[in-house]
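Ticket #4471: complex job returned nothing on first submit. Input attached below:
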Amino acid sequence: MARWQLPRNDSWHAMLASKAVSPAGVKILRWIGMRSSSSRRIVLPLLLAGLLLLAWQLLMTFHKVNPIVLPGPGAVFDSLRQNLPFLSVQGYYTVQTSLVALLISSAIGISAGIILIISRRLKDAVFPNIVFFELIPKIALAPLFVIWFGTGIELRIAFAVFLSVFPVLLATMAGLTATDPSVLRLCRALNASVLQTFFLVRLPYAAPFIFSGIKVGSTMAMIGVVIAEFLTGNTGLGYMIMFAATNLETSLMLSSILLLCIFGMALFWGVEFVERLLAKKYEAPVA
Amino acid sequence: MPEASLSAPASRPRTCSKISAVLLPLLSALVWILAWQFAVWWFSISPVLAPAPSQVISILFSAEIHNLASHGLYTGLEATAGFILALVLGLGLALTISRYGWLRDMIYPYLIGFQVVPKLALAPLFVLWFGIGLTSRVAFASFICFFPIVIAGIAGLCSISPSIIQMCRSVGASEAQILYQVRLPSAIRYIFAGMKIAATMSIIGVVIAEFISADKGLGYLILFASSNANTPIVVTSIVLLCVIGLLLYGSVAIAEKRFLARYAG
Amino acid sequence: MNKATEVQKLKADESTAMRATGFNQSGEARELAVPDYINIVGVRKVYNPGPAEVEAVSSVSLRITSGDFVSIIGPSGCGKSSLLMMVAGLENPTEGTITISGRPVLKPSDKTGVMFQDSTLLPWKTALENVLFPIVIQRRMSALFNERAIQLLNAVGLGKFIDTRPAELSGGMKQRVAICRALIQDPSLLLMDEPFSALDAISRDDLGELLLNLWQKTHKTALFVTHSIREAVFLSDRVIVMAPRPSRIIADVKIPFGRPRNTAVQETAEYAKLCANLRAQIGSQHA
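Support reply: We reran it on our side without changes. The output follows.
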């Protein structure tokens, strides 16, 4: 992020000189008011988390909130500790399904993107359909998928693939057309063949785009699996969340949700990790 | 798309490409609908599996439409309310955050973190907290819309080059003046991009919330009809959902054109 | 009062003001120049105090007479821009004082007009609106100022571009708008930080001439930071040479050419000698 706050007038020295604030005080005030530093970027979010937890606990202690609506942090923590092994297994199912769906949709999305870019005619024929498809609120089609695929794992994978293939496809297409025109001109000057230009130049340039598409796709795939589990599941974290909700076991529900968020982030960062690995190996630009 | 293929680019007149940008999707949609109709007829596909477009159209023009429309109105209102709430809260937070650097350092990691989390899966939480009434669905929709708007707002408000800020300081502008005279106009483009994403997301949020807890609305109708294997209604509802989504998105797009015309730059 | 009489009154006010400050009708300065108009005493500027500190200005003392056009030249890192920012009130010195007309400079004043290397025009406002921006900020908007803005834009040759947006203006035109903006409040001091550095050579020369013509009509005090020795010698009454590490003034040369000046002076032998002399002064620091 670019620095967007300019150095302000140096009134700290005026403050020190006037002895209105002690040197230590000035130092603390200065650290708060200073331009963003890396230490500040770590401490402040942690401070916020701490404050929120504190507020939560205080609310529970002093306000007598219905524990079904909002259990205290202690209760949630206990539930988490108790159910962690079981929930992890459920989480594993969800993540595994999401991962499989993501791999399938990445493969489809990338290949389809490549094909559509290579063949202009196909692109002209198919792209308007894609644009049209983007307008459909795809998640609302979940019950339709239940009709088509039943309630087993095929449903979850099919729905998750359906949701995650479009970000990958669009990102691939965007990436392949975003090559620096002067580099393409160089390739023409060197009489590089179309395929050479494609695999040696366009694809590496497109890599950051493709990966950002896959990252979005990973979130969408997980959402697809979880929504499918909401509607018709007997395993997975989505199912656990609904189960806990219908049985009014709020602590369990909150623990499941927390675990789901963690797994979601892990999947996202897993993709990021792969991206950096590949970038290092091929010295390609990382987004 | 420029340089869309590896073959030599064919030159096309500008107006032609603008018209084709709208016509082609419509034409292709038409082609698909006709192909679908044909396939259903040719393969004798059961209406439970895939209803023919003719069936969908007949439902749209029958008495059913009143029922569907009322559900649609309900969903549309929930989505709009959620969107507007998210707009107000999101822009407010973006303005506050861009003013105070320490607040931004504090909150921004969570905003980014939430983008990575499967937010739509948090719907049951909102049902738990807000009950099964309209509030939970509006709250969830605004939760979903909130993040694109805030992030776009922050990106826009901080996208001003430091030299322009310095120039403003040199003519004696106060922080508030810098915010309203300079940061906001330059952020408009970003904010509208975020609003467009939010508009599409709000419909989805409402539908998911209706899946798990509603007795009205298109999401509920889709679920109910599918459990009765009434696929024609399901597909018709989905079509209606698309229309509502287009309306919301279209309103934002029109507003964007108006604002940009005034603040072009 | 209709517009025409307003404009007449404005012109009458202007000439009265000019006479009162020591200029006759044709704008030539009478002997009312103040020798200590700008007084810079023992100024030192340090950024990021602490382990990562950068000393931008080491020790500078300088007195500038009102009505003078003074250039500051020197290689990168010699602190000339920092010095200018401090005179503008956008930064405060770590040590030392800067006073203008006896009053210390603490924050930007509306009696000082500033120009930057980047024209910093607001992209969504027209040229006229950009020129009036300081007035809008000071909440002093009136028909008079509107009229003056149009006059200024005409004086710099942008009469036909009053309602154009910056995106449609060239770099040189944008800087002309910036000049008008700096002059709109009729400041007594004009500060310019390499205003023409980002322009091509021809625009640079044109704008230099334009600046000179404008300045020679009103004889404001001007402080002009630049890399270009030629430009400095051509425009100024006095050239200050700064050197980096430590940042200080190493030479203070009076330019003997009379006023009004035109480009012909650049062909004289004395001009070349002056430039060579200054170049040698700067070069001697690169040992």
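The mean pLDDT of chain A is 82. Closing as resolved unless it happens again.
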